[in-house]
Specification:
Layout: H1 3-11, H2 17-25, E1 32-36, H3 43-59, E2 63-67, H4 74-81, E3 89-94, H5 95-104, E4 115-123, E5 128-129, H6 138-147, E6 153-156, H7 162-174, E7 179-182, H8 186-195, E8 200-201, H9 207-211, E9 216-217, E10 248-253, H10 259-273, H11 276-283, E11 287-288, H12 294-315
Parallel strand pairs: 1-2, 1-3, 6-7
Antiparallel strand pairs: 3-10, 4-10, 4-11, 5-8, 5-9
Helix pairs in contact: 1-2, 5-12
């Protein structure tokens, strides 16, 4: 049987389980692309790098990161969606690109047709401010924003991304007037924040600079405090309830990818996630490991889709 026929059977109708199983057992037969739909240096990329190294060791083939940024993650998403479903291309991204943006934009493809592979952890972030602005606590920040309407600029990784919607939810819950400045990715907005060209962000890529004393972290976006910043309160502790937007990372395959390959990856990722060393590795990039079956990942995705739809409607979030 020619290789292209094997691919067709394994990734398509699965008419021959024997052929699909044999193909999956030989997988991966060459380097695997992990398409990251945001630029290098941003929160998604920082989490993807250690995962690419771990999977490369686990499978004996290189899992190579390919940053395909632009359009709030949709350029990378579409590239992954239209890739051959042969198990050698996957999408590594946050729920920005698989939930938030698809709900706000009219896309050329149906993101819900991606095959959910694995949960890669819950992201931690928080509103971070340039120290030159003045406020050192969340309460001081809100007071400053209300006294200076429209004078604070907030940078995000793009229109419709989770950082963008965190700002919109904050505005909705507190009534502050803060300008939104969208960038191609978090790395670019971080540069402007450090330079003082913008005053605020809400992405994990700011954390190393918080530790270095260059930026001030006002809160963390988790239900409980984050071990890396034990003295920093949650939004709820700051008196702002129901304003957080869930942030999590997932691995997705193009429609038609063989079930055996997806199952193998899910099991391997859960095995890695369960180790104490991996928890420490992820903690350094502000990510909390989660172990989930394929069905559980899909359920989390469905629930986030529903919850985000309700947030967008209640807060009146629109892409102008």
């Amino acid at each position: 049987m020619r290789r292209r026929d094997v691919l067709k059977i394994a990734a398509g109708s699965m008419a021959s389980p024997f052929v699909a199983k044999a193909y999956a057992q030989a997988w991966p037969s060459r380097p695997v692309r992990l398409i990251v739909s945001f630029p290098a240096g941003g929160a998604t990329d920082l989490v993807a790098r250690p995962w690419s190294e771990a999977l490369s060791r686990a499978y004996g083939q290189q899992f190579v990161i390919e940053n395909r940024s632009g359009a709030s993650g949709m350029i990378g998403n579409e590239a992954a969606f239209r890739a051959a479903p042969d198990g050698h291309t996957f999408l590594f991204t946050g729920n920005t690109a698989t939930v938030g943006v698809p709900l706000l934009y009219k896309l050329k493809f149906d993101a819900r047709q991606f095959v959910a592979v694995a949960h890669l952890g819950n992201g931690v972030s928080g509103f971070t401010i340039h120290p030159g602005v003045g406020p050192k606590t969340f309460a001081e920040f809100i007071d400053h924003a209300k006294k200076n309407p429209g004078k604070l600029n907030y940078g995000s990784s793009g229109l419709g991304t989770q950082p963008h919607m965190r700002l919109e939810m904050l505005k909705f819950r507190t009534g502050v007037d803060i300008a939104h400045i969208p960038y191609r990715g978090g790395a670019e907005s971080l540069q402007d924040l450090l330079a003082g060209n913008i005053q605020l962000m809400n992405e994990a890529s700011t954390f190393p600079h918080v530790k270095a004393g260059k930026l001030t972290l006002l809160n963390v976006s988790t239900p409980t405090r984050f071990v890396e910043f034990p003295d920093t309160p949650t939004l709820t502790e700051c008196g702002v309830k129901d304003a957080d937007m869930a942030s999590w990372f997932g691995l997705y395959a193009p429609p038609g990818t063989a079930k055996e390959i997806v199952t193998s990856l899910n099991a391997k990722i859960n095995e890695i996630s369960a180790t104490p060393d991996w928890k420490a590795t992820m903690q350094r990039v502000a990510n909390i490991p989660v172990i989930a079956s394929i069905d559980e990942v899909r359920k989390i995705w469905d629930e986030d889709w529903k919850a985000t739809s309700e947030v967008i409607k209640s807060a009146g979030i629109k892409i102008e």
